[in-house]
Design a protein that fits this description.
The complex is a heterotrimer. Chain A is an all-alpha fold. Chain B is mostly helical. The mean pLDDT of chain B is 82. Chain B has two domains: 27 residues, no CATH class; 227 residues, Orthogonal Bundle (MetI-like fold). The chains are: A mainly alpha, B mainly alpha, C alpha+beta. Chains in contact: A-B, A-C, B-C.
Chain lengths: 308, 293, 379
């Protein structure tokens, strides 16, 4: 379309440029801080130009906080959440969409409701459950009198216990417990035409075969989109790992970051080592940013489809 | 309406069982437990919980610190949302014109979403630090003009800016997608009818973007009640003097530091209800949007 | 005066040229239809007139202004889009009146004009509805009303009837024609449907692959197609094409089954002894007794019943041949039938270029035909 609006075009560029600056300036300042020495950073006011200490600061922050182990842990967490969520979402959505039984709507609503309450509002009891993940079953058995019965009959005291604190399972499972992926899949499955199902049935394929050989290949782009979002989400997890991980060998990067915060904000009592803290921030920021930039098309698509 | 189904319902049960199991253990049970704790009080000398009815709720409602955190949360939610949505909308409208360099701008706007909340908190804490970061330049000229360590309002402003910064990318993505879903022929029709760029924004793009605006409004506000933990914990730990004591942070403090499970549980219940009301609102509007277009 | 002059106009997207040098003169108040298959560049050409696409080369003038650099709103054109492009959040009244609102016309005057236009298109009772509540045909009329109200110099139509069902399409064709007569504006209409084109056009522009193949009145394009493409595109069912060889005397052409048919010697003279493509329309062929002089023999395949006639599908040698006849006697499958046609209804084309052969040695160019047409209509 022919549009002759030079003044407006200039304004548009100005707006976009300033927006970009506002978004990039914090990154730049973080970068600058990560390249300076302890003295430079505590100058008042500090320099706005980069120094030359980037590599040494990065190395020091890395070793001090044992980022190597943390990266590994976070990778495991992210991988676990991505795989877990996608696999469970796919089979659950399949079970809801392609079968017609009376309880279908009930199951749907049960899962739907979990969208309403993200983890942050139920941290306290969820933590208690993670401390002993079998406690619900224990309580049920107690309340229904089964454990009393077992105790009477065999003299064995039923005490189920499975502690998930400080474990990978404990990190991963509660994060898999919401329905975001399930809804993405459900929406996608609803667009599968009836004819495809009927053709498969005429060809003699059972439900599992249909799922594995037809639906999963068709949902490749959905998988990519969901995987991208879930990776970023789980990599950046802060609150939950903060609570259930006390053993540093299981720590994740986001939590480690908070330990880098200099203890005091003022210069009294210890000199704050912001340069290391900022180096650490850079380390933590890079992987998900790379993923988002490299896979931005999928990422955007995934965001829009899961939150609609 | 779907008509083609598979017949084997046991298979269906087996398929949904894993998710149901997980959400039972990690969602419904904790929620029920929170209810249980909220209505009872743990005996100080052990031996189970005692039913206290609404006592826990009453003591919360009478606690001025609680109302302080409610107030702080509301201010944070409204300010961060307004700031972030306003900026994102402006940027999306500008980006939608698809002038040269459009793709670069788009990538540039999206990446902040990938930054973890504590990373945002830490970076901004440094930037806004009165003696070490960017702001120290300001303080060098006018000493003491900026001091989030002592001044509650400054601290809250800092947290709001960090929160808004983090959310811009998310809002930008949705706004841009909404703008680009407007059929090109409508834009051309306005051009044929004589409308210029600004006129088109007001008469066509903004009205058609209204459902997206509603949707994002609710999501932003809801998320600001829950997502903000990472930022507050790394920036201010709720201070100074509770000036940034968001509801979600207070729950964490009371429950895990103060070991007041009943109080934390009661607060959680209230927060849960609030979030559920907001989410309910959101689904009503999302539905309307699907009918709208 | 709103003539449209299109001079040596080309359009390229990057390195790909999609419109290769179009020259066209459209007179004031003419109804010109641009016809062609998908991807031939007809919509692109229309959008270049409107200002919705930039002109890569050449120039377009509306009236006496060259409009290459002008924005759409400065060109004095109104457009009816293929999918109507109605503003979904505005009422019918607001949709129709939008251009006036942009132009700053007062509310009262606007309301009056909208009412007039709504009466003209028969939608006075629907002014408060939204487009989502209207049927396809009603939406189309709102789109037309929106264009009408501006009283433009030029009306542009981008395949507006393609999304309507067959019956509605016929109805709307008449309405568009009536509208054109009443408004006396220059109209450019793009379509891929040759029936629409033939019934609506004052003049027809046939395009293929980014080139203009022929410009002429519907009669001219039908009677004297300038290439095998035009011959095959206009007319339903399409023209039959057979390879043939002109005999030495240039009076006959020998066809694949060995039979000879008479042709116009003036046309065939330049090709004596050479190969040609023979084109005959199904409706120009008639049945004769087998073995009659100067006839063909075709093997009958099957029959399509049209009601007002029948389509007889057969084969001459290995070439398909269709005859459109009202003859009621059904031949048997495999039966041999005799077919004849008048020499003046036989079209001869160059087998390689597809161009029509005319008097003299050289194949005709569409320019010559167009010049002839211009002379004829100016007379």
């Amino acid at each position: 379309m022919i549009e002759r609006t030079p003044a407006l075009n200039l304004l548009t560029h100005a707006v976009l440029l300033s927006g970009l600056l506002i978004l990039l300036v914090p990154l730049y300042l973080t970068f600058v801080a990560a390249t300076q020495t302890l003295q430079q950073i505590n100058q008042i006011p500090p320099s706005l130009l980069p120094g030359d200490q980037l590599l040494s600061n990065l190395v020091e922050a890395w070793t001090r906080s044992d980022f190597g182990q943390k990266f590994l842990n976070t990778m495991i967490l992210a991988a676990g959440v991505v795989v877990g969520k996608i696999a469970i979402a796919a089979i659950t959505a399949f079970g809801i969409v392609f079968f017609n039984h009376r309880l279908r709507m009930l199951v749907f609503w049960l899962i739907f409701i979990t969208l309403m309450l993200p983890l942050e509002v139920r941290i306290v009891p969820t933590y208690a459950v993670a401390a002993n993940v079998l406690s619900p079953f224990q309580t049920i058995l107690d309340v229904t009198g089964v454990s009393w019965l077992v105790g009477q009959l065999s003299g064995i005291e039923l005490a189920l216990e499975w502690n998930l604190l400080n474990s990978y399972t404990g990190l991963i499972l509660p994060l898999v417990a919401t329905a975001t992926g399930t809804f993405l899949y459900r929406q996608f499955f609803l667009t599968i035409p009836d004819e495809l199902v009927e053709a498969a049935q005429m060809d003699g394929a059972g439900p599992l075969r249909f799922l594995w050989e037809v639906l999963i290949p068709l949902s490749r782009t959905n998988i990519a989109a969901l995987a991208t979002i879930m990776f970023v989400y789980s990599w950046n997890q802060y609150l939950w790992p903060l609570l259930i991980i006390t053993d540093p060998s299981y720590g994740v990067v986001a939590v480690e970051l908070s330990r880098l915060v200099p203890d005091s904000n003022t210069t009294g009592g210890g000199i704050p080592n912001w340069h290391l803290a900022m180096a650490g921030t850079l380390i933590v920021m890079i992987p998900p940013v790379l993923v988002v930039v490299a896979m931005q098309r999928w990422f955007v698509r995934g965001l829009i489809n899961t939150d609609k | 309406m779907r008509r083609a189904y598979f017949k084997n319902n046991w298979v269906a049960a087996a398929l949904v069982a894993p998710q149901l199991l997980i959400i039972f253990v990690f969602f419904y049970w904790p929620t029920a437990q929170a209810l249980y704790w909220a209505f009872t009080l743990e005996q100080p000398w052990g031996g189970g919980n005692e039913w206290v009815g609404l006592d826990n709720f009453r003591s919360i409602v009478e606690d001025e610190h609680y109302w302080n955190s409610v107030g702080v949360s509301i201010v944070f939610a409204l300010c961060a949302t307004a700031l972030s949505m306003g900026m994102a909308l402006t940027l999306a409208l500008a980006a939608d014109r698809q002038l040269r360099g459009y793709r670069a701008y788009r990538v540039g706007m999206i990446w902040p979403y990938a930054v973890a909340a504590p990373a945002v908190g830490l970076a901004f804490r440094f930037i806004f630090n009165p003696s070490a970061g960017l702001m120290s330049h300001l303080n060098a000229i006018w000493p003491g003009v900026w001091d989030p360590i002592l001044d509650g309002n400054h601290a809250l402003a800092m947290v709001i800016v960090a929160g808004a910064w983090k959310q811009v990318a998310y809002n930008f993505i949705f706004f841009l997608a909404g703008l680009q879903s407007i059929p090109r022929s409508l834009v051309e029709a306005t051009a044929m009818d004589g409308a210029g760029v600004l006129r088109r924004m007001i008469d066509l793009q903004l009205p058609l973007l209204a459902p997206t605006v509603f949707f994002l409004l609710v999501i932003n506000i809801t998320d600001s009640f829950t997502d903000s933990f990472g930022i507050v914990d790394t920036m201010t730990a709720g201070g100074p003097a509770r000036a940034t004591d968001l509801m979600v942070f207070k729950i964490y403090e009371d429950g895990f530091r103060g070991l007041d499970y009943s109080g934390a549980a009661a607060q959680s219940i209230i927060l849960m209800l609030l979030v559920m009301v907001l989410t309910f609102f959101q689904f009503r509007y999302v539905e309307r949007r699907i009918h709208y277009s | 005066m709103a003539d449209i002059s299109i001079r040596r106009v080309t359009k390229s997207y990057g390195k790909t040229q999609v419109v290769h040098g179009v020259d066209l003169e459209i007179r004031d108040r003419e109804f010109v239809v641009i016809l062609g298959p998908s991807g031939c560049g007809k919509s692109t050409l229309l959008r270049m007139i409107a200002g919705l696409e930039a002109i890569t080369g050449g120039e377009i003038a509306i009236g006496d202004r060259v409009v290459n650099e002008l924005e759409p709103r400065q060109r004095g054109c109104a457009m009816v889009f293929q999918n109507y492009a109605l503003y979904p959040h505005m009422t019918v009244a607001d949709n129709i009146g939008y251009a006036l609102k942009v132009a700053g016309v007062s509310k009262g005057l606007r309301r009056e004009k909208v009412r007039q236009v709504a009466a003209a298109i028969g939608l006075e009772d629907y002014l408060d509805r939204k487009p989502g509540q209207l049927s396809g045909g009603q939406r189309q009329r709102v789109a037309m009303g929106r264009a009408m109200i501006r009283e433009p110099e030029v009306f542009l139509f981008d395949e507006p009837l393609s999304n309507l069902d067959a019956k509605l399409r016929v109805q709307m064709r008449l309405e568009i024609r009536r509208l054109h007569q009443r408004l006396e504006a220059t109209s450019v209409f793009v379509t891929h449907d040759q029936i629409e084109a033939m019934t609506l056009a004052d003049r027809l522009v046939v395009m293929n692959g980014g080139n203009v193949e022929q410009v002429g009145t519907p009669g001219e394009v039908y009677d004297t197609p300038v290439s095998t493409f035009v011959g095959g595109f206009i007319g339903s069912p399409p023209m039959n094409f057979l390879p043939g060889r002109v005999d030495g005397s240039a009076q006959y052409v020998t066809l694949p089954d060995g039979h000879r048919v008479p042709v116009d010697p003036a046309v065939a003279a330049g090709r004596a002894g050479g190969v040609v493509t023979v084109g005959v329309r199904p409706e120009d062929a008639r049945f004769v007794a087998g073995g009659a002089p100067h006839s063909l023999t075709a093997t009958f395949d099957f029959l399509e019943e049209l009601g007002m006639g029948r389509l007889f599908h057969g084969r001459i040698g290995e070439h398909d041949f269709v005859v459109n006849s009202v003859d009621k006697t059904p031949p048997a499958f495999g039966e041999e039938i005799g077919i004849a046609f008048a020499p003046e209804r036989v079209h001869l084309f160059d087998p390689e270029s597809g161009k029509r052969l005319v008097d003299g040695n050289r194949p005709a160019s569409n320019r010559a035909v167009e010049a002839g047409a211009a002379r004829a209509s100016a007379a």
